[in-house]
Amino acid sequence: MTDRILDYLRRNPSDAPRLVVDLDVVERNYHAFAHALPDTRVFYAVKANPAPEILGLLARLGSNFDCASVVEIEQALAAGATADRISFGNTIKKERDIARAYELGVRLFAVDCEAEVEKVARAAPGSRVFCRILCDGAGAEWPLSKKFGCVPAMASIVLEHAHDLGLVAYGISFHVGSQQGNVEAWDNALATAAGLFRELAERGINLAMVNMGGGFPAKYLRAMPGVPAYGEAIFRSLSRHFGNRMPETIIEPGRGMVGEAGMIEAEVVLVSKKSADDEVRWVYLDIGKFHGLAETMDEAIRYPIRTLRDGEATAPCVIAGPTCDSVDVLYEKTPYELPVSLAIGDKVLIEACGAYTTTYSSVGFNGFPPLASVVI
C-alpha cells in the first residue's frame, strides 16, 4: 500500500472494483534488480502486467522484455523497446507467429523440444535459441508444472539439433517456481546448466547464456527475503558452478517487479451465514476469481486485505466473488479474520495485486466487465 494510491482513491471515488498501480514502486523494483545483479540483463515478464505505462517506464529505464506472444512483442515495441531487447520466451509457438516475430526483428527464441527447434529454423533462420530445462519448484508458493521444459539430457540433444539446423545454440533457461521463498533455489538449476555448458562444449557447441527465469516474490501475507538476498545467493551459485567462465545471464521478473505496486479497491456486496449457529460468515465482494483474482486458486496466493474497520474485533470469514459460479470462492479452507462490523457497501483494499490480475480478468463472464486499471 502506498500513500499515492490511497490519495488517488480518496480523490477519485468509484462504484466499480479497480486496480491502481503506482509507477514509483515499479521504478524502485527495477533499480533493485539491476543493483542486486548488475551483470545480469532484466527481461520483464510482460504477462505479469502489460499496461502501456508500465512497459513505457521500463523501456526508458533500459529493461528488456520477455514476451509470450506476438501481441506482447508488439506491445513492447510500441512502448519503446527495440527488437534486440525482446525474447520470445514461450516454448509453445505457432510457426506463423515465429515468422511474424522474426519479421519484427526478434532473434531470440525459447525452445524445449526438437519440433519447436525445427519451426524456428524454418521461420526464423539464424536466430538464437535457448532450451528450457525442467525444475522441481521446491520452495515456491506456486510451483510450475511440467508444461514447459525438458529433462537436461534431452536439452543437449535439442540444442545440438538447433546447431545442426543453422541456428545459434545460445543457452539454457529454467524457472524455479513462482513466488519462490528460498534464495538458494537457483543453485541446483545453475549446477545443471553448467554441466550442459561443459557437455556441449565437448561437442564443439559453445553456449553463452543462462536465463534464470523469474520466481522473485512479491510480499503477500508471508514475509519474504528482499531482492539483495536473492542477488547474493544467485551470484554465489554462479561463481561456484561456472568459476571464472561466467556466462551471460538473464532474469525475468514479473511478480517481483509489479506485484507490490498495485492495489485493488473492492466493495462488500453481501455478508451472510449458512445457518443461524454458523461461526463463519461469508463475505461476498464485487470481484472474484473471474475478474482478476485467479491466483487465489487453491488459495495459492493469499493477498493482504485491509478495511476501514481494521482494529475492531474480528471473526473468521469465507471470502467469495459475485458470480453465479461455485468455484468463485477465494478463501474457504483457511478463512480470513475480518472485522465483525464489516458491512454491505464497505470498501476493502486488496494489496499486492499489481501482477496477474488484469491479465487474468475475464472479458465479460456473467456480464461483469473486466477489471478496470489505473496507473499513476
UniProtKB/TrEMBL annotation:
<dbReference type="InterPro" id="IPR000183">
    <property type="entry name" value="Orn/DAP/Arg_de-COase"/>
</dbReference>
<dbReference type="InterPro" id="IPR002433">
    <property type="entry name" value="Orn_de-COase"/>
</dbReference>
<keyword id="KW-0663">Pyridoxal phosphate</keyword>
<dbReference type="InterPro" id="IPR022644">
    <property type="entry name" value="De-COase2_N"/>
</dbReference>
<comment type="similarity">
    <text>Belongs to the Orn/Lys/Arg decarboxylase class-II family.</text>
</comment>
<dbReference type="InterPro" id="IPR029066">
    <property type="entry name" value="PLP-binding_barrel"/>
</dbReference>
<dbReference type="InterPro" id="IPR009006">
    <property type="entry name" value="Ala_racemase/Decarboxylase_C"/>
</dbReference>
<feature type="domain" description="Orn/DAP/Arg decarboxylase 2 N-terminal">
    <location>
        <begin position="24"/>
        <end position="258"/>
    </location>
</feature>
<protein>
    <recommendedName>
        <fullName>ornithine decarboxylase</fullName>
        <ecNumber>4.1.1.17</ecNumber>
    </recommendedName>
</protein>
<keyword id="KW-0456">Lyase</keyword>
<comment type="pathway">
    <text>Amine and polyamine biosynthesis; putrescine biosynthesis via L-ornithine pathway; putrescine from L-ornithine: step 1/1.</text>
</comment>
<dbReference type="Pfam" id="PF02784">
    <property type="entry name" value="Orn_Arg_deC_N"/>
</dbReference>
<dbReference type="InterPro" id="IPR022653">
    <property type="entry name" value="De-COase2_pyr-phos_BS"/>
</dbReference>
<dbReference type="GO" id="GO:0004586">
    <property type="term" value="F:ornithine decarboxylase activity"/>
</dbReference>
